[in-house]
Structures
1.
Amino acid sequence: MHMRLATVRDADRIAHIHAESWRTAYRGALSDTYLSGPIDEERRAIWRDRFDNPPPGQYVAVAEDEAVTIGFVCAYGGHDPRWGTFIDNLHVLPDFKRHGTGRLMMQDAARWSTHTHPGQGMYLWVLESNAPARAFYERIGGEQVERATWIPPDGSELPKLRYAWRDFGALLGA
């Protein structure tokens, strides 16, 4: 398994991974109508636009296993003055979870952030109900630091938690 910088040619595959990840991780949190319906086209439109019109500081990398893209990470460097680089997306195809892909992608994002935004931390938001993801982030050194509300595309209101890495020692194995 290895990481590489994503290109516009990866947009549709990234959208597919994003939709599949949400279908499994957010079942019961987001509406079944949304997860079974418009999510695919919506994610495709979002990812095509992100590659066609990249926001400042955007970094997108994909994880590949034998030349098959199985996950991706999207980060925005220096996004928050207090918390640093924002991990906006971290998704792995369901069949490839628990094989080290998530850790590899987080390490890749941390190395990129260290290089491009030295001295800053990193953070992400996770649904409070997503216990497996929360356990994963805690295992790799994330600290829960804040609670807020997310209004997803289906219009519901869901509690979310901010996890932060003030340094990358535990994540990078230092």
2.
Amino acid sequence: MISPERQYAEDAALILESMGLARAHGKLLAWLLVCDPPQQSSAELAEALDLSAGSVSTGTRLLENSRLIRRVAVPGQRGKVYEMSPDGLILASQDDRIRTFRQLMEQGIDVVGDEDAPRADRLRRTRDFYAFMEREIPALIKRFHAEYGEGGNG
């Protein structure tokens, strides 16, 4: 029998895998959302999730570079220790991918001619969607913080 926390990590990993995240990385992210204590060493993550040290190392590096988790210093704890970044999942929605995708659509419009070219419809609509997201997400995050506070605890 596995713990509800481990089951959550397994279930979330499947969903995140369908969105393009490696299953092991999804397990790490989900575990760090629900584990107790909230700080976990690489060894604890490997043991709790039955992952290899290499999978933990690769996954934590990717999640840390994405600003979803962060490395923390814990007195008396050896090795690398990680926890969820405050607002990590919220900040991820502000990353450069939205702007990059909008720019990619603009490049595509240049390739097919211009805004009014017959083949520009799909590119224009997608570009407009990402421009909308790029403009609106910061306002939504600001509104969220105003409503729920900086820590998101409402």
3.
Amino acid sequence: METKKILIPTDFSVKSLELVRKAIVETADQPLEVVLLHGTILSNSITDLLFFSKSKLVKELQSEEFVEACTVLKNKYPSKIHSLYVEVITSNSPAYFRNFVDATQITEIFVPEEGVLNFKNAKGFNTLSLFSKSGTPCFYFNQEEQEQTEAVGKKQFANIFLSGLK
């Protein structure tokens, strides 16, 4: 069976990874290549631009809980998740985003409802408005169905990933 490449926005919170689990359920038995997307506006400083590193930015933004949650997802769904990695875009232009989607060969985008992700805490911009203009099929998920708890850290991690265990 061919691997499907999907895009999911992230603000580097564990809560943002709930969409990965929902995407796994929605895609039945098809293996997935999951691209977690984060948008950031670059500084105008020539020094900052010269020394910009996507991997350094991602390491800076990822919390220990986020990395651990990604590892748990990969281990819990090894037959479903072919790969899971973070991509960073540096413009909120619809044309830039369409080119990104075409270049990375994204087949579907899984979108949370507005307000679920907090991009300001992750030095980023809201990428959700770009998705509908890309021409790529989008699947919208309503987060109201899940419990609205304000738990953070390990407790939030447990709520998201250990629910539904058989």
